[in-house]
Amino acid sequence: MHIAILTFDGFNELDSLVALGILNRIKRSDWRVSIACPAPRVRSMNGVVMEAQADLRDASAADAVIVGSGIKTREVVADAALMAQLRLDPARQLLGAQCSGTLVLAKLGLLGDVPACTDLTTKPWVEEAGVRVLEQPFVAHGNVATAGGCLASQYLAAWLIARLVGEEAARAALHYVAPVGEKDPYVERAMANIAPFLGEPVSGAAALHP
User: CA dist 93 to 7, 59, 80, 127, 177, Å?
Assistant: First the structure.
């Protein structure tokens, strides 16, 4: 089971790394979470340089993909050659998008006519792409989920874990990272945001359904 977190130059550290940390709470030999980038190294919006663990081809073949956000997302979607390498398909993958990552899914035509979530800065660009933006942190339609606000990345991670492993595994991962003294209400609030969008857990790419 490979989960790729698409991370581009100018990335937002919270979007990629919070999800990475939560997803890696799953300790299974068949579970792999990778930062996937179009180049061997990318620099964050705050100057943090990170080495890629996977490339765009790996991401296109992954069982699940989170499209991260950043300050250069409009440059990403304007790069036809780069966008052509993103062969994402909700019929065989779980797809998530964080903040301006929603714009990437919109430009790839993967959101269709369903509403989505994004951050306040990206909202007008997503709407310009023909997608209605919801005033909420998380929404999912079938195998495609979107989140708005940096710390909504916890909801994307929990949704993926719940879909791929089960709800109890998602609760355990959130409980581990939640602040001490606030763990139970933190987990309940997070799960309340994703619970309406959970179907039956899936065990692999072959079990995914749109």
Answer: 18, 10, 22, 25, 26
